[in-house]
Structures are given as structure tokens and as C-alpha cells.
Amino acid sequence: MADITRRFGWRHLRSAPTAHIRHHKRGQLAHDGQGLSFWYRSLSAALSEVPVDDRELAMAFHARTADFQDVTVQATVTYRISDPAEAANRLDFSVDPDTGSWRGAPLEQIATLLTETAQQHTLDVLARTPLAAALVDGVASVRDRVATGLAAEPRLPATGIDVVAVRVVAIRPEAEVERALRTPAREQIQQEADRATYERRAVAVERERAIAENELASQIELARREEQLVDQRGTNARREAEEKAAADGVRTEAEAARKVRLARAEAEAARETGAARAEAQAAWLRVHGEVAPATLHALAATRLAENLPRIESLTLSPDVLTGLLAKLGRPEGGAGA
């Protein structure tokens, strides 16, 4: 919308670069162009503002396919007004000279023209297309048909409108039909998932079986080695017992031989000791046999005295001494001496 200001009964208009301004004064064209700025009197001015930028028109409408299924088509048409003078002559782009706002709704008229034209060509295409084909290839076919139909529409060039691009965003069926159409694909996906699950379980079972077989083989090998170990331990025990028995036999024989030698040595020593004692006793008896009785009595007294308690002093009367000497077989005169 143009920017209009007031100064002392005059109006000043300043337009945007994307707006084409046509100013008629008393039926004559005074200003015509884009991005204009000028003074005018509102009582004698007739203004038109035509946008010349690219505009996007979003549209959505219903259509019916060849198998009588309702679908919703979402599309966008990009257009521009290439001939502002022709558009201003065919449509009401006049603006209020005081406020700068449009007196009518020209863009809505253009939107209605484009929407109805696009809808007409879309209905023509989808009416001959089944729902499944429309959902798969309908976007491209509808886009091409709408672009061709808009380019061939005679009212658009006559109004100064050029269609820049046509885009079909989506063609969607009703919610229940869409769910029904999704069901086979979902079932197939679920079947694939189930098959993958079964295959994964089969692989897991196969791996578990392989693991169990490996464990069983390991246990068998372990049992076999344990059997070998038991046999080896038995062999070692028998060998150790045999070696121990042989060692005990050798040790026993050695001990017996040592004891025999010791007994023989002791017997020999005993014989020699006995012979020596016998010889000593015979010599002792022989010596005592050759000695006088008095000497033997003196030796006996000496031995007796050795075994008696210690006597510090002894007093003998002459009578006792005489009797003792008489018993020893000595004369009394010798005793006095």
C-alpha cells in the first residue's frame, strides 16, 4: 500500500518499488510507473496501485478419482502482473486518494480466477485416474496439467497476468482410506520384521547349539584329561609306593645288617670283657690265695672302713685293742709295738 501524507490540502504519494502507480488527473494520465513519488489533489486525482512482484497463491480443494474416492489436493501457484496497465483496465486496482487502500479486492479476484482454473484441470485429470495411481503419480500429472492449462487460459494474458510456477504439494485421500491403504504396507513391513525376528532367533538358536556343543566337547575333553590325570596319578602312586617299598627294604636290610654287626661287636666285646674279667678275677683270686690271712684281714678291714661313716676320733681301751689284735691273728707284743 502506498504511503500518503497531507500538507496544506495537498497529498503526497510515495510508492514501493514493487508497486506500479497510475495517476489520472481530469481523465488524463499524469503519472505512470513503479516507485513514483508526487504531489496531487485528492479531489481531482484517480489513483491505481498494481503490485508487480511475484506472489504465492496457496490453494486446497477436493477432487474425486476414477474409483469414486475423495482426495484433497494442496498446490501453490506463483504469478505476477506483467502488464499493469491492462490489469488496471480489467480489474479494480483503484486506491483511496486519502488513505491509499484499495477500494475493491483485486487480488482476491485473481486468486479466484487462478484457483478455479487450476481446480478445473485437476478435476479433469483425477476423474480419469484411480486412487492408487493418483497417490503414486498424481502429483506430477496434476502439476503438468495445471501448468499447461494456466498457460493456455486466455483470460490470464488478457488481464496481464503471467503464471511463473505451479507446485503440487500433496494429494491425500480421506483418513479412513489412507489408513486402509497403509494396512497392506504395514502388514508387509510387520511380516518382514517378523521374518527378521525369526531369522534372528534361528541364528541365536544355532549359535546357542554351537555353544552347547562346544561346551559338551570341552566337558568331554576335560573328563578325558581328568581320566588321564587319574591314571597318571595312580601310576605315580604305584611307582612311589614301589620306590618307597624298595627304599624301606634297603633301609631295613641296612638296619638289620647294622644291628647284626652291632650285636656281633657287642658279643665280641662282651666275650672279651668277660674273658678280661675272668682273667682279672682269676688273677685277683690267685693273688689273694697267695697272700697271708692277716693281709686279707687287713684288706677286709680297709674295705669295711671305706664303707663306714667318717670317724673323727676313736678311743680304744687296752682290753679292746688286745681282743682285736687277737682276732687279727697278731701277737700282743706286736700290738704294743
UniProtKB/TrEMBL annotation:
Basic and acidic residues: compositionally biased ranges: 237-250
One Pfam family, short name: Band_7
Regions crossing the membrane: none
Superkingdom of the source species: Bacteria
Domain Band span(s) in chain numbering: 33-197
Region (Disordered): 231-250
InterPro entries for this protein: Band_7, Band_7/SPFH_dom_sf
Gene3D superfamilies listed in its UniProt record: Band 7 domain (3.30.479.30)
Cited SUPFAM superfamilies: Band 7/SPFH domain
Name of the protein in question: SPFH domain-containing protein
Organism: Streptomyces durocortorensis
